[in-house]
Amino acid sequence: MPESQAINQKAVKIVIVGAGSVGVTTAYALLLSGLVTEIVLIDIDAARAEGEAVDLSHAAHFAQTHARVRAATSYADCADAAIVILTAGVNQKPGQTRLDLVRTNHALFASVVPQVAAAAPDTILLVATNPVDVLTHAALELSGFPPERVIGSGTAMDTTRFRHELGRHYGVNPRNVHAVIIGEHGDSQLPVWSLASIAGMRLRDYCAQKGVAYDEAAMDGVAARTRGAAYEIIQRKGKTNYGVASVLTSIVEQIVKSSDAIVTVSRVGEYEGVGPVALSMPCKLNHTGSHMDVPLLLSDKEREGLKRSAGEIRGVIESIREG
Ligand SMILES: NC(=O)c1ccc[n+]([C@@H]2O[C@H](COP(=O)([O-])OP(=O)(O)OC[C@H]3O[C@@H](n4cnc5c(N)ncnc54)[C@H](O)[C@@H]3O)[C@@H](O)[C@H]2O)c1
Ligand SMILES: *[C@@H]1O[C@H](CO)[C@@H](O)[C@H](O)[C@H]1NC(C)=O
């Protein structure tokens, strides 16, 4: 790869903590994206991080723009990172919920996040480890960072799956479907039907125009398939990695390019009077992090659902506190 290309490009360093399945798939997607100039892998299993970094550095020769990939054993290497992605932690086993992982992964964050924050006080933390909302809240407290610089991947994946399912259901390209999943990245998440639209038309009007029934049972089926997608995948292959890695790469892209894209990511705040708690709402992503500029105009039923979801996550946070 010509050196001149690397010199012309603005330096963008990304650190990935956790060189497991999600971490290395994200590293590979980032490498091919041409968005970054340096990727650093950190894992408690130093040999694994080293092996993955060398393998990825060979793949780097085939990327559009060259990026350096290396492993590090110290969190001091987070210095100057634009974004530190946290993917370290235990994974769901078939039948486990994301909340089952909380104790182990919270202890891991308590040891890792303060070290990251000390080395990279101006960085943006991007949390993928589950349960992602609880750990986004923990990362905020443990880092002392402002809320806009602690972002959880949240329901960005669920929103993508939802649009995918709706696109299939109505026979249109998912890009023409505007609909979001908000709340917990987990079982209490909720689809915002009242604001869903296709090609700029409210879903109800779209259905009327097209002569198809606006069918609540079918809609519940779409929401259930969205909610159950990760369980279905884990049942079959034991983990999920490509979808989440692509979502993380896309979030990095919106931040690095300061694109002002609106994405459903998790962020600490107060929701329907419950808080502080992290959950997902549409947020604007730019160079300084995630911003909730405009509140969603939810229906009363949806506000109830959001309150329930916030309470659910808040309950887990309090249960950790009680030890
Ligand atoms: N947010 C999402 O949409 C989403 C999707 C898939 C997975 N996940 C979550 O991401 C996490 C990782 O999943 P995975 O499939 O990559 O698991 P994995 O087991 O493949 O990788 C986890 C890695 O973390 C490392 N690790 C463990 N303790 C560490 C520590 N103290 N410091 C540094 N590294 C440490 C392990 O050595 C391992 O390499 C899980 O919590 C999983 O639930 C989230
Ligand atoms: C990012 O968005 C926030 C909220 O809208 C705004 O205050 C800030 O100036 C923006 N920053 C950049 C770099 O665009």
Automatic annotation (TrEMBL):
<dbReference type="Pfam" id="PF00056">
    <property type="entry name" value="Ldh_1_N"/>
</dbReference>
<keyword id="KW-0472">Membrane</keyword>
<keyword id="KW-0560">Oxidoreductase</keyword>
<feature type="binding site">
    <location>
        <position position="105"/>
    </location>
    <ligand>
        <name>NAD(+)</name>
    </ligand>
</feature>
<keyword id="KW-0520">NAD</keyword>
<feature type="binding site">
    <location>
        <position position="43"/>
    </location>
    <ligand>
        <name>NAD(+)</name>
    </ligand>
</feature>
<protein>
    <recommendedName>
        <fullName>L-lactate dehydrogenase</fullName>
        <ecNumber>1.1.1.27</ecNumber>
    </recommendedName>
</protein>
<dbReference type="InterPro" id="IPR015955">
    <property type="entry name" value="Lactate_DH/Glyco_Ohase_4_C"/>
</dbReference>
<dbReference type="InterPro" id="IPR022383">
    <property type="entry name" value="Lactate/malate_DH_C"/>
</dbReference>
<feature type="binding site">
    <location>
        <begin position="18"/>
        <end position="23"/>
    </location>
    <ligand>
        <name>NAD(+)</name>
    </ligand>
</feature>
<dbReference type="InterPro" id="IPR001557">
    <property type="entry name" value="L-lactate/malate_DH"/>
</dbReference>
<dbReference type="GO" id="GO:0004459">
    <property type="term" value="F:L-lactate dehydrogenase (NAD+) activity"/>
</dbReference>
<keyword id="KW-1133">Transmembrane helix</keyword>
<dbReference type="InterPro" id="IPR018177">
    <property type="entry name" value="L-lactate_DH_AS"/>
</dbReference>
<feature type="active site" description="Proton acceptor">
    <location>
        <position position="185"/>
    </location>
</feature>
<dbReference type="InterPro" id="IPR011304">
    <property type="entry name" value="L-lactate_DH"/>
</dbReference>
<feature type="domain" description="Lactate/malate dehydrogenase C-terminal">
    <location>
        <begin position="155"/>
        <end position="320"/>
    </location>
</feature>
<feature type="domain" description="Lactate/malate dehydrogenase N-terminal">
    <location>
        <begin position="12"/>
        <end position="152"/>
    </location>
</feature>
<comment type="similarity">
    <text>Belongs to the LDH/MDH superfamily. LDH family.</text>
</comment>
<dbReference type="InterPro" id="IPR001236">
    <property type="entry name" value="Lactate/malate_DH_N"/>
</dbReference>
<keyword id="KW-0812">Transmembrane</keyword>
<dbReference type="GO" id="GO:0006089">
    <property type="term" value="P:lactate metabolic process"/>
</dbReference>
<dbReference type="Pfam" id="PF02866">
    <property type="entry name" value="Ldh_1_C"/>
</dbReference>
<dbReference type="GO" id="GO:0005737">
    <property type="term" value="C:cytoplasm"/>
</dbReference>
<comment type="pathway">
    <text>Fermentation; pyruvate fermentation to lactate; (S)-lactate from pyruvate: step 1/1.</text>
</comment>
<feature type="transmembrane region" description="Helical">
    <location>
        <begin position="12"/>
        <end position="36"/>
    </location>
</feature>
<dbReference type="InterPro" id="IPR036291">
    <property type="entry name" value="NAD(P)-bd_dom_sf"/>
</dbReference>
